[in-house]
Task: inverse folding
């Protein structure tokens, strides 16, 4: 049987990680995989997470199954964090999932049941796992323009033009904040225009929010998601806790589906529980319990918010330092976009050949599309990267 297998496409980011590991150069710089790293290059367990885990270890009296949708307290805490009061609780169905990836997968499976012919529209570019999963599920897929290769901002005119061709019932995947891989984001007003077109066309939004708190702050980063939630009868929201709680390996995420009324919510909730049952039965609980413990305890929550703010500001400072250093070296403002981008990533906007040159000549690793993980930098490596960018002729 197994002899019939053919090799699947390798995940480029994970392959790059493996390459970095075997590079013997001691001054190599890893700007590849999307994991937050502090100045010393470690991905810390957040203080509030440690404390929540200590409490869970001391107090937890059973490891019996939760529910198919996960712990309802997690659902309520995440609904508040992401959606606040943008839509009435009775309209929101939710299931805990293994990470944000699990939430996206379940969202697509839900769409497959409800609207099997719907085309899934993805930004060009987007996180590579989006098209990979859509393709794997055999769903129709299309792209809308997103990145302006010249300004390194959003190609807003191109995006609007492409969204004008969306058919009724199609699903448009939008990043809630901190677009991956570009770092370029729509303003609130631009998103209002996108919403206007989608409403006119009868399209349904699927929001992927994986970096709430990494861009402009916890509340601001949720504004676009909340605006979308309140603007449509139906909308799907896949949220990840991997980055903002630093619980990557615990696989913690949630899929929320906004229904038009409580009856539709009940049917959707039942369907989501069914989908969890088919795919993995009960979702992982530990990370979700940690997140719930933090979000519902005022002291832990305040400490988590403080640490998340420190993280966010660290990345903003690095962005500014890199933009300033490149301004100094090139005597131009053509790299100012780095300071305008938000989140963990920026797309430099150069060719795969020059990305390879940076790797070969300078030991600087970034994804082939020139996505850099800003958190992979520190005060010492910023000038090294800037110099390498200039000497590579980017
Ligand atoms: N969406 C986007 C845009 C992401 O960048 C990521 C993480 N790389 C995810 C979803 C999912 O993350 P996870 O499954 O680790 O929670």
Result:
């Amino acid at each position: 049987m197994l002899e019939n297998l053919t090799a699947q496409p390798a995940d480029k980011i994970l392959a790059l990680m493996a390459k970095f590991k075997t590079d013997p150069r001691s001054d190599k710089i890893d700007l590849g995989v999307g994991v937050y790293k502090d100045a010393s290059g470690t991905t810390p367990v957040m203080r509030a997470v440690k404390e929540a885990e200590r409490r869970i270890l001391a107090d937890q009296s059973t490891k019996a199954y939760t529910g198919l949708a996960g712990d309802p307290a997690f659902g309520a805490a995440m609904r508040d964090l992401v959606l606040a009061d943008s839509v009435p609780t009775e309209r929101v169905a939710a299931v805990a999932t293994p990470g944000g990836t699990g939430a996206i997968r379940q969202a697509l499976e839900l769409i497959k049941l409800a609207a099997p012919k719907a085309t899934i529209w993805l930004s060009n570019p987007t996180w590579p796992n989006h098209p990979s999963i859509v393709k794997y599920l055999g769903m129709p897929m299309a792209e809308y323009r997103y990145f302006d290769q010249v300004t390194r901002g959003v190609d807003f005119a191109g995006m609007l033009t492409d969204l004008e061709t969306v058919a009724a019932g199609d699903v448009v995947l939008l990043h809630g904040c901190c677009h991956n891989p570009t770092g370029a984001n729509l303003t609130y007003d631009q998103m209002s225009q996108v919403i206007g077109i989608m409403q006119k066309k009868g399209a349904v939004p699927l929001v992927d929010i994986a970096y709430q708190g990494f861009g402009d702050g916890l509340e601001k980063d949720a504004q676009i998601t909340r605006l979308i939630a309140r603007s449509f009868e139906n909308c799907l929201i896949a949220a990840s806790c991997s980055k903002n709680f630093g619980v990557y390996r615990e696989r913690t995420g949630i899929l929320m589906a906004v229904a038009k009324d409580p009856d539709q919510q009940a049917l959707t909730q039942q369907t989501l529980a069914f989908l969890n049952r088919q795919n993995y039965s009960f979702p992982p609980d530990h990370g979700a319990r940690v997140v719930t413990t933090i979000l519902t305890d005022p002291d832990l929550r305040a400490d988590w918010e403080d640490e998340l703010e420190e993280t966010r500001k660290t990345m903003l400072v690095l962005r500014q330092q890199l933009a300033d250093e490149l301004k100094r070296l090139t005597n131009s403002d053509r790299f100012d976009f780095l300071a305008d981008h938000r989140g963990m990533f920026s797309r430099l906007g150069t060719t795969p050949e020059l990305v390879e040159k940076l790797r070969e000549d300078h030991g600087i690793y970034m994804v082939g599309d020139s996505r850099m993980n800003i958190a992979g930098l520190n005060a010492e490596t910023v000038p090294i990267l800037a110099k390498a960018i200039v000497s590579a002729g980017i």
Observations:
- The longest strand covers residues 92-97.
